[in-house]
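Reviewers of the previous submission asked for a worked example of the structure-prediction workflow described in the proposal, so we include one complete record here. The input consisted solely of the amino acid sequence. No template or homolog information was supplied to the procedure at any stage.
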Amino acid sequence: MIKSKLTSKAQTTIPQPVRLALGLSEGDELAYQIERDRVILTKAMVVLLDDPFALFEEWDSEADRVAYAKL
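From that input alone, the workflow returned the following structure tokens.
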């Protein structure tokens, strides 16, 4: 089990194995999902407002980006 401590200002350091597993780097945003007595931490999706398909995950593959690039 990987642990970290909470500071008096409610801050913590995300341990390196977790950062590596999520592919996190400086400036990345995190998403928290609460399920009963658990919290699921994930890397937040970046939504580009210029991309009309950004909100539709089912159209967010590399093949879709290539296919719709010239529209």
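The mean pLDDT is 86. We consider this example representative of the routine output the project will generate in years two and three.
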